[in-house]
Amino acid sequence: MHQREEKIMKRRTFTRLATLALAAGLTTGPTLAQEVLKVGAVAPKTGPLAGGAAVSYWPNVKLWISDVNARGGLKVGGKTYKLEAVEYDDQTNPGETIKAVQRLVDQDKAQIVLPPYSTGLNLAAAPIYARYGLPMITSTATTDKAQALSAQFPNVFITLGGAKPVVQGVVETMVKLRDRGDIGKKIAMVNVADAFGIELMNEAKPAFKQAGFELVYETSYPLGTQDLSPVMKAAKAAAPDAFIAWSYPPDTFALTEQAMIENLQVGAFFTAVATAFPAYSGRFGKSVDGVLGIGGVNADGAAFKAYAKRHEEVTGAKPDYWASVMVYSSFQVLEKAIEAVGSFDNAAIIKHIKANSFDTVIGPIKFDANNNNPAFWTVGQWQGGVFKGVASTGRDGAVDVLKKGAWK
Amino acid sequence: MSALLSLRGVTKRFGGLVAVNAMDFDVAEHQVLGLIGPNGSGKSTTLNLISGAFPVSSGSISLRGQPITQLPAQDITRRGIARTFQLVRLLPSMTVLDNVKAGAVFGHRRRWGREAETIAEAMLEKTGLSGRGHMMVGQLTYIDTKRVELARVLAGEPRVVLLDEWLAGLNPTELQEGIRLIRSLRDDGRTIILVEHVMDAIRSLCDRCVVMAAGTKIAEGTPTEVLSDATVIRAYLGDDDA
Amino acid sequence: MSRLSARDWRNLVLVAMALGVTACLPWTAGAYMLSIGVTIAMYTVLATSWSLFSGPTHYISLATAAFFGVGTYVTGIGIQYLPYWTLLPIAGIIGAVMAALVGLATLRLSGVYFVIFTLGLAEFVRQIITWGQNISGTKGIYVLTSIGETHIYWQLLGLAALVWLLGWLIGRSRLGFALRIIGDDEAVARHSGIDTARAKILLFMVPGAVAAITGAILAPRYVYIEPSLAFSPMLSFQVVIMALLGGTGRLWGPLVGVIPFTFLWEAISVSFPNQTTLLLGVCFLVIVYLLPKGFVGLIDAAKKRMGAEGYA
Amino acid sequence: MDVIITGLLLGGTYALIAMGLNLQYGMARIMNLANGEMLVAGGFVAFWLWTGSQISPLLTAFIVAPIAFLMNWLIYMVFLRPLVKRARSRGQLEVDSILTTFGLSFVAVGLMLALFGGDYFSYSYLSTPLNILGDTYGANRVAAFLAAVVICGLLWLWLSRSRTGMTIRAISVAPDSARLVGIDVRRTAALAFALGGAVTATGGTLISTFLTLDASTGVIFTLKALVIVIMGGVGDVRGTIVAALLLGLLETFVARLIDPGLTLAAAYLLFVVILLFRPQGLFGRPTT
Questions:
Q1: Domain boundaries of chain B, sorted by first residue
Q2: To the nearest whole number, what is the mean pLDDT of chain C?
Q3: Among A253, A327, D89, D253, who pairs with A139 as Cys (CB 3.0-4.6 Å)?
Q4: What class does CATH assign to A163-298+378-392?
Q5: C180–B94: do the CB atoms touch at under 8 Å?
């Protein structure tokens, strides 16, 4: 397992050193005869959200552009354009995101501006996209206010859904396990005390009560807590049948390790963001089997396998099994809409996106009246070293959920 | 005449060291009191206790019968006790006039604007600095810096002036000028406490003297009385040739 | 208040005209320049109000992020219940009260403890707000208003004018005189009859209130308010660096620091997107080494060398 | 009972995080805001060597320490000595070092980003349960605690017994008078700063076995280290150890018995209270 990891590690560091040296000599060779189209992308490369963006966002920008160029370029109104990325680092600061988007449109005259990363930065930039009428197909923003947002910003589309469907997916999975007798009705539930964690926790508590589950332990912990063993010890003391954590990457890793140390015997173990990251299975190896997490994908589908292979070749890193594929698919929707309309008339493109369904790596995407993509993966499970989708709102290819065995 | 300023059992301890030990003395209105004694006898510390620079360990200090023992320095200054520093401390980024205005604006009589300006200029006249209001303090001679500090103290029209070795470091001619200046304050009827080593200044200026040694009062009286007192001489000159 | 001299009138008119010209930016410049204008206006207000306190007292406050964050939450929460124009004064009052409390607690401490206390303050307030959010079940707050970049720009410009006016008035008032004395020698100040702690606390309320109001003004721009973005310590450091780059000796000092720094930040972000953080770090180092007194120091030194008479 | 042990283990982690800064700020008078980045760098090296060629972090620590010592010595010589020469007062040196090291932390994050990329890196090492007094604890945390005890113990002994240790303590108490007795203050300060950097990097290597890090997480550790050093008393090794353990116990106590959401708020409250009533810290000398 570790040899391949090592090869990738070496290649990735080597590519980084090369780009660092290359950055000094900026000018690329003479542009091809084909016209070049600037594609703007602004997201965190530093700051608290840099970790997530580095896994799910930046590689997919690079992959999408290389895929389109490999296919000959973007065919718009009879002409084909070679795409070239203009990237900016907003250092996880909304003020910078706003300035960067303005810069892309005003100064760099980018025809296409890809959506930023994460709920906060997307919403900060939404007014700018709205003013220029640019289509904004967000792929990393979760919100339950899609209705209010689409009223204020008609050009904003939400592909990652909101808290309600994710909670429904988790509740459905737990009910399935309980009805099969794999787990009892006692749950322990924790959440990171950040907007994301709070939103999901508030949806989950009533939903689980309604589904007849008993909440034996619940708590929240601040972002950046260095030691989660007190939380895990208290959870274990409550002898739950299932453990659910609405967590961010650092605490997802910490809670999993703590559960292994405490040898928490539960029929279902769910952690949120980063469960689908390659680093997660890289760190815990075999004992990751049976762990549930947010997202998931039709891992056995040919589309995803081809995507994952290309992703690794072009960017040197494996994609994660949730956000990566959503980001890439949202770029595909934009690409197909522009080519279908045959011009850069944004109003027409937005109308086209609202009206049609688009075939992407995760399957068909069709936005509802509130510009919200109703069909997405909500829960996935590590089975045999692959994070497969087990529950979704209208996605096919879901595999059956398995009972969590002992930690290996 | 009732005492303007009185100290009762004033003590100051720095950890184990007792710098000032149960000092009692009074200062009457318009009186010039000399506080003298060999180095390390607690003279300056007593002055610092009166001016609020150091908190008093025990005992009480009162001004016109009202206790000011635990008051912070700024309140004591506002009540009318202003002081100079052993090492002259002026405000480097400001002109001479502004330095003096500082006393006028925030001292015992709080002035502002035109009034503060006139008082400051008057004090410059008084201390022999007339016409040099606009100069920066960095350009002054040593005695002029002392004049500015004195002018600042006077600009607040204090009830009691504390001079902490104000004459120290002056050459003979400057010394005469300094003594003449303090005498003019005396003639104006100001109440002054003078901590000094310059004996002929003490003789010519002070109505009464308090002599300190090792933190305690060893003698009190007119300058001639105390300077001829055996214990005082022994304290100053040490035991062998008494 | 001593009478206004002819020179004061001339300066007032000049400043008013300059403000008039900059106010027309929304019409004369494109949206991108406007967004830079908003950034410059924001940092000018924060850096000027910061140096009003730190100039004379030499205390380095890293509390800007804490006051700014509280300001954004005042708008975030208040926007649903109160009309918008009432939120700015409320934010100002809350900021001032917070600054007074911090002042009471810390101004007795020596310099470096004050710095670390203010740095920790932003984190402390963030934890409390996150915990409060968690208990009350409210998540990230949406500020959906019709307030656009232009409104925000004008409000910041108005606030900047207010801050300069306030700074000018303080400079001529007893408090200003007291602060200059404290800056030179605090012992002399105390013995001249100045209540130094009270003066510092009073003055610290100015950057407190102004930073909170700025936060309240900018909240609609961010649309979605969450603790980690509203309270980032980065803001405190940027304000300090820009104020020091400009120089805290003069009222217009920080402005002279903010403008070049913002354009420098832009230039670096544009030409080196992948190494932005690296190069910004290098700029910080250069500023601290080469310009200890900031541009103001540079300009004053140049003026001395040219022997130019007359007043600045 | 397990609350106490968990608290002590967390205290050990905090000691590793803060001890280096105490040396750098307490002894060499440099308020180093890039302390967190040095810690993360130590973690990066451990990750790289472990996932790359199976070298255990405990072994990596011995490789990281000398390299970090040299690097920090260079950083002091190149970036910080001009500040020390130029500073007229201690206050000015502190302000200059805050701004300079803030710039340095930016440069460090930029470099780490360029070399290692921005994504999370974490690996599991010794994440096996260890039974102590009837309760289970992470073996990696226990190992880190033992390492902390060893490092802090050695440091304390070395500082109080050896000659160079004494000179370092001398410059922390009174740099001016130290000069009078023939101590080359600048060279000793450089030594103290480099030693502090080495301890922080080694600490990073050890705690990366159970904490997930990425290029930008340094600032969290810097803040935590600052709080501990100030609470313990600047320049006092015992103070840092006691403050670290106290903080670990408090946070664990609040997490288990009150509300885990309040752990960090409680930590800052403790910091504020100590700062108000004992500004010089638990063991520090009242600085005039």
A1: 3-80+159-237, 90-151
A2: 85
A3: A327
A4: alpha beta
A5: yes
